[in-house]
Amino acid sequence: MSKKFKFFIFIFGLLGLFWAANFALAQGGADFGIEAVNNGLNNSLVANDPRIIIGRIIQIVLSFLGVIALVLIMYAGFLWMTSEGDEEKIGKAKQILKNAIIGLIIILSSWAITTFLLSRLSEAMGINGGGFTGGKAIISQGTGAIGACTVESVYPTADQKDVPRNSSIIITFKEEIKLDSVCINGQGDSCTCNTTTCNKINPQAIKIFKADLGDACTTDPCSSPNSNITDVLITVASGNKTLVLTPLTFLGSPNNNTNYVVKFTNRVKKLDDSSMFKNCNADFFNWGFQVNTSLDLTPPRVSLGGIFPIPDNIKDIFKQITPAKKAAAKIIVAGCPKVFSAATVQSVIPAGPTIALDYHGALSKFKVSIPAPPDDNKAQLFDEKNNLLGVATFDSSGQAVFANYFKIKVQNYQAGNAWDITISPEQLADNLTVGSSVYVFAATGENNNIVVPGGTCTEEAKNTVAANMGAKLSGNPDIESDYTNKTVSLAAHVAGVAGNDLALNVTGSSALTLQPFAGGVDRDENNEIKDKKDRPMNSVIQINFNEAINPVTVSGTANEVAAYIRIVNALATSSPAGAACDNNSDCRSYKCENKLCVGDYLGGKFMVSNGYRTVEFISDKECGVNGCGEKIYCLPAKSHLAVELMSANLRGCLSNDDCLAYSPFTKCSSTAFTYKTCQNPANKNYPTANLSQLDGLVDAAINSFDGDRNIYADGPLSFYDDNLTPEANLNKWDNYKWSFYISDKIAIEPPQITFIKPIQGEAEVKLTDPIQINFNVLMMNSSLRTGSALVSNGSSTFEHKLLNLGSSTPTPLGYWILCDNQDSAPLDGEPDITIANINHYTFLESVTYKAQVGSGVKDIYQNCYKPSAGPTQTSLNCGVSQTNPSCCFGVATSTLNAAGNCQ
Fold first, then answer.
1. Listed residue (853, 787, 797) closest to 629, CA to CA
2. Cα separations in angstroms, 487 against 82, 440, 463, 475
3. Local structure of 402: helix, strand or coil
4. What is the 3-state secondary structure (H, E, C) of 169-201?
5. I want to staple 686 with a disulfide (CB 3.0 to 4.6 A). Which of 61, 177, 546, 665 is the partner?
6. Which of 643, 637, 649, 650 is nearest to 590 (CA)?
7. In this structure, are 58 and 115 located in the same domain?
8. Following DSSP, what letter does each residue of 620-663 receive, concatenated?
9. 133: in domain
């Protein structure tokens, strides 16, 4: 091997080392690629701390120097390769190479030193792996804590904007908290949290502070006074995993947005007295959010279409097989639909002015006049009732412009001149909607235009319109069409009840008589659906709210929260606890033992998930196991159940003085309750509940629940029933209920994934986009969480993975799950699929990330996700089978690592 060849191997080895070092730095978190630099500049280079700014600038400069060194090495190599034995050129190339290599070594050393120092500074400031908002030093520590470690979810979410000033702060851990590590009493002593004497945060364990001021509690005990928010009430949800922190004074300012940081230190303990974060990448957890300038005074409500099962008023009837029928509709042409015609000028009296129309309204007569001096260079526009519509100034050419009406141009004008202008207003075309398509009646037939012949609307013209309509509708993917004698007959393309919901309407015309889609029937082998389909026994009851709610009164066993939320027999004549009974259906609890009713509600537990926006109930009555060997629980067979939610009582007052701080709710008024409330001039209540004694549902801002969805807090006066008509619900405030029927069937089909984004192996992924996973059915949102679930099966315990996100770096990235139910095609107004999003802190460039959906994830019927149960040979399950049930990076396999993850 020649010396020259060895030399070049050495040179390319150095280049490889340079590339590897750069990649390793990106992997380890020192990511200073183009996007990171850009992010840094947009965010004041991570923070306003000069140490971090200087360190970042140094690394950016070093990266450019490294590029220069690389260019010099390539240039020297070019000189050498093209020297053709010229010793002078070879010597010059060697000198350049020598200097470039020395410079490269210095650059790499400097880069390593700077990275080391910067990482230590970051650790000292608590910003390992964090995200930053708005250049205001919001520090969002997520690595090794949220998702990847012991924190399940938080509210407000990391880097959330527009948080109201009166918001509470909520955090849920995956393990039970040692309560005396987070609470203190009035004397500052640690104590086990309760709602009366021990309800303040331990300022050494939980720190809340403005980002620009930083943590002012760095000594033990904290210096007093200090700028941290310490006057904070703490309440604990059932299970001792969720804390709700409610500041007693509003956060932020009424004038400017304010950035906050919440930090949980290693003083927060597990039951074994070890730090909650001892196995995380940092022995603490903090995140940041931005508080806006306003208060949240809008009560929470159940989202429209946000409940499962949906309201059902009539029990299904068992019968034999019913064949599917197509929904049918008709369009009868009674006249000629209108086509578009622009507005036109009919007359100008006296003649002379030129009119250029730009008018789309319904007026047909106008008057323009010239006022007396000194305004005789202006024109006034009136309607026929002499109402002033506008004033315009003539330009040098004699033109005045009345915006949205017309331009008038007059050669010679003077005070007192006036003109009467008559126009034919614009005529809009009639539109026809059929299914998901919209058609426009027009004079020409391009696109979705249906041609209407000009001239008189004769019987022949009507026939022509119907024929043209039938021809155009024949291409509609939702329907089939047929034309005869001025009538177009329509049928849903797919048989079934969904066809009854196909849209059929016309706008702006009485020329068409419509008979809406009806008569569609699903194929049914077991029963006749009388209202809505009765749901399987293994259903999970789900309630989705329009915002985060306080979990304290809606999570726990049925016994713990029965005063606020409960599942009961919907039959009004059902009997309470202790009453005589013969059957379970005789009791409000659906539980009759020894001829006596036991309890006033169904047994089970309520769970909060999905960013505190979803509450789910699962029965405690075992009825089998799912495909993963996990127990499933059933609601009573052939039952009629109701869900009842209670609104919280409102904050009371004694006089107007008690309401002065709640503008515009400054009037202390008598109500239907035994107490007065603060009301506004429209006699609407101040929405906040009594914080010291929560007795119903409230949101994160402690606003009482709005059961009737009228955006006001009326308090727990009566039940709004979602099964009734709006008329029947008049004056029903502000509790909420609905009812439905349960069959004696069990749903056993496992859920499937129908869409993922990014797809396997996708590059150029945006650094902040969530991972999206679409399921083919509604999912049990409380199973869409991070980590894993332990399932006992006989004498063995199995770990089933949930939704997780990992990377090729040794430091995990923080992530959390939010999901949304949607109505899939054909649209019937009932959500039937769930879209789960794995939200995360900002990705690093040049790093490979791995998303995971495990068998611990379950649908609304408690069936676990099994890739091998879905369709084979698709891009989503890569051809998995019973022998190769896992899909790892696009390849079906039966081999996982010791942790149960893909290798």
1. 797
2. 85, 18, 8, 17
3. strand
4. EEEEECCCECHHHCEECCCCCECCCCCCCCCEE
5. 665
6. 637
7. yes
8. S-EEEE-TTS-EEE-PPTTEEEEEEE-BPPBPEESSGGGGGGGT
9. no
- Would you place residue 138 in the very low, low, confident or very high pLDDT band (cuts 50, 70, 90)? very low
763-813 pLDDT per residue, tens: 888 999 999 999 999 999 999 999 988 877 655 678 899 999 988 877 778
Please state, in angstroms and rounded to a whole number, the distance separating the CA atoms of residues 9 and 15.
10
In which element (H, E) is residue 93 found? helix 87-125
Contact 411, 398 (CB under 8 A): yes
Q: Residue type at 5?
A: F
* Tokens representing residue 60 in the block: 């950016």
Considering only 38-47, 82-91, 702-711, which range has the smallest mean pLDDT? 38-47
Total Cβ atoms within 10 A of residue 490: 28
What is the number of domains present in the chain?
Answer: 6
Report the half-sphere exposure of 225 (CA within 13 A, side-chain side). Answer: 3
- The angle subtended at Cα 785 by Cα 783 and Cα 789, nearest 5°, is 65
Length of the chain: 903
Q: Which of 285-294, 340-349, 490-499 comes out lowest in average pLDDT?
A: 490-499
Q: Return the CATH number at 394.
A: 2.60.40
Decide if 519 contacts 328 (C-beta within 8 A). Answer: yes
Tokens of 743: 């069959």
**What is the pLDDT confidence band of residue 41, given thresholds at 50, 70 and 90?**
very low
- The predicted pLDDT at position 900 comes to 80
| pLDDT score at 47 | 40
pTM: 0.66
Q: Please determine, for residue 653, whether its predicted confidence score (pLDDT) is greater than 90.
A: yes
Looking at the fold, whether 364 and 506 belong to one and the same domain comes out as: no
Indicate whether 664 belongs to any domain: no
Q: Give the pair of three-digit tokens for residue 108.
A: 């790499």
